[in-house]
Write a structure and sequence with these properties.
Elements lengths: L8 E5 L15 H14 L3 E4 L3 E2 L11 E5 L6 H13 L3 E6 L9 H6 L13 E2 L20 E4 L4 E4 L14 H16 L4 E4 L40 H12 L6 E5 L4 H12 L7 E3 L10 H14 L6 E3 L8 H4 L7 H12 L5 E5 L19 H6 L34 H4 L3 H5 L5 H14 L1 H5 L1 E4 L6 E8 L2 E8 L5 E5 L5 E6 L1 E3 L2 E4 L4 E4 L5 E2 L1
Parallel strand pairs: 1-2, 1-13, 2-5, 5-9, 9-10, 10-11, 12-13
Antiparallel strand pairs: 3-4, 6-8, 7-8, 14-15, 15-16, 16-21, 17-20, 17-22, 18-21, 19-20
Helix pairs in contact: 1-2, 4-5, 6-7, 9-13
Pfam family, one: Alpha-amylase
Family: Belongs to the glycosyl hydrolase 13 family.
Protein name: Alpha-glucosidase family protein
Length: about 525
């Protein structure tokens, strides 16, 4: 239990939106380096950077055209090295995104592969002949709408793209492709990165027979992708062997780690997390989207955590409430809150009390809310295609707000996404000296987690209490805490079974054995103690 990542708090940076250093309206690596003191002041252990590689930016960097270079928008390899050096000097590990399931259609590998059926890289992507009537080989849909197949007239074949047409899927059945991807990972390990966040890790392999996916009778989403159960287009058992190759590579370096993004939900996500982290020869940990939904009940959080512990007892989980793909949690859960600030403080307390590794998303420490955008302000492909039913991901990607200057200190130029007044009002400079701000609450809560062995590595046991109360014990090495959260905009009262004391930055009052929780209140008690409503 000594690996640094097991109880780490990781801060996700979306590079386009963190800090612009050269006045082009887009964040960059020198800007990140400039702002690392802010990140370090939170008390976190690591930063995770969304993709910074060379890219046409059709999917904002998740379409890579050169895995071993920095896109000029973000700077140079020298800028990257300087950023890593500064992060390490501040005690921060550096994790980078790896997009290995697909590349950009501008990647030289694909340019060669699409040219003919008989060149050296002809089999580096997923190609298939059409049906006799010219239709695609099966019914697989793209996550971003339409079929997952695009016709290439030069080869007179279709290629697979689980995402945009401009993101062809790499053929990991080909050992040469695996070798090439491992070489790109080795390139960054040699430059000093401490780990990888593996994008769409369950999409690496497809069914070799290209069988049709069955329908999904439980679909309620507004898109076509969720109308199927994706048993053949992803989640394939062949993934495991490649994960083992990746682990053998990272194990050659000191104190490195990999965290996989599992694009699934429910019991399927738990099963995959268990498979991908079993033993010591696969991924170090996984995370799913279970806590990135609109569900805000004690039952949901308990079921998610217990589900992983019971069905994947040897796995290690990574939890987050927000990231670059979903509505910010303060906006998602606002119907359950007295105020955005009260919800933001409670969310920090709850997340940082959960077992496992924790991910925070930039701006979360400011209580940042989702930005409402007009159609003409959008850049995200799903939103542009399916507006207004699908709002897309731009609203959570708007620039970080630093101070009360123009564009909230993000840039001297017009930003790539707008900084609007409700978001600018939450700027970091305005919260830094306020002991009751959301920023101060995050710093205090992270410091409390670091000081409490039970919160870092303790076992977790849930208490049976009615909604909206979430409560559990965390215990380790003879120490224990009781963690209590009122997931409601109304006050709640509980009775302790024995005497205890409030500890840490609790937002509650304790009189004798009467514990009163304000709306979105929370408490840490200095021992494992029974509670009743």
């Amino acid at each position: 239990m000594t690996e640094w990542w097991r109880d780490a708090v990781i801060y996700q940076i979306y590079p386009r939106s963190f800090q612009d250093s050269n006045g082009d309206g887009i964040g960059d690596l020198p800007g990140i380096t400039r702002r690392l003191d802010h990140v370090a002041s939170l008390g976190v252990d690591a930063i995770w950077l969304s993709p910074i590689f060379t890219s046409p930016m059709k999917d904002m960097g998740y379409d890579v055209s050169d895995y071993c270079d920095i896109d000029p928008l973000f700077g140079t390899l020298a800028d990257f090295d300087a950023m890593v050096a500064r992060a390490h000097a501040l005690g921060l590990k550096v994790i980078i995104d790896q997009v290995l399931s697909h590349s950009s259609d501008r990647h030289p590998w694909f340019a060669q592969s699409r040219a003919s059926r008989d060149n050296d890289r002809a089999d580096w992507y997923v190609w298939a002949d059409p049906n006799p009537d010219g239709t695609p080989p099966n019914n697989w849909p793209s996550v971003f709408g339409g079929p997952a197949w695009e016709w290439e007239p030069r080869r007179r074949q279709y290629y697979l793209h689980n995402f945009l047409i401009e993101q062809p899927d790499l053929n990991l059945w080909n050992r040469e492709v695996q070798d090439a991807l491992l070489d790109t990972m080795r390139f960054w390990l040699d430059r000093g990165v401490d780990g990888f966040r593996l994008d769409t890790v369950n999409f690496y392999f497809h069914d070799a027979r290209l069988r049709d996916n069955p329908p999904n009778p439980d679909n309620a989403a507004p898109d076509t992708y969720n109308m199927q159960r994706h048993v053949y287009s992803k989640n394939r058992p062949e993934n495991i062997a490649f994960l083992k190759r990746m682990r053998r590579l990272t194990d050659r370096y000191d104190a490195r780690m990999m965290v996989g993004e599992v694009g699934e939900s429910g019991d399927t996500s738990i099963r995959i997390m268990a498979e991908y982290t079993a033993g010591t020869d696969r991924l170090h940990m996984c995370y799913s989207f279970e806590m990135l939904s609109h569900q805000f009940t004690a039952r949901h959080f308990r079921h998610t955590i217990e589900g992983v512990h019971q069905k994947a007892p040897d796995s290690h989980a990574c939890w987050s409430f927000s990231n670059h793909d979903v509505f910010r949690h303060v906006t998602r859960w606002l119907p359950h809150a007295e105020s955005p600030e009260a919800l933001a403080r409670q969310a920090a307390a709850m997340l940082l009390s959960f077992p496992g590794t924790i991910c925070l998303y930039q701006g979360e420490e400011l209580g940042q809310t989702e930005t409402e955008l007009l159609y003409e302000e959008l850049t995200d492909p799903p939103a542009l295609r399916f507006w207004p039913e699908i709002k897309g991901r731009d609203g959570c990607r708007t620039p970080m707000v630093w101070d009360n200057s123009e564009n909230a200190g993000f840039s001297t130029a017009r930003p790539w996404l707008p900084v609007k007044r409700p978001q600018a009002a939450r700027h970091a400079a305005g919260q830094a000296a306020d002991n009751d701000s959301v920023l101060s609450a995050y710093r205090a809560t992270i410091a409390f987690r670091k000081a409490q062995m039970p919160l870092r590595v303790g076992q977790t046991s849930f208490l049976d209490l009615p909604e909206p109360i979430l409560a559990f014990y965390r215990g380790a090495e003879g120490q224990a805490l009781t963690c209590v959260f009122n997931l409601s905009a109304a006050p709640a009262a509980l009775t302790l079974a024995e005497d205890a004391a409030l500890v840490g930055p609790s937002r509650a009052t304790l009189s004798g054995r009467a514990l009163d929780l304000p709306p979105n209140g929370f408490a840490w008690l200095d021992r494992a103690v029974g509670l009743s409503a």
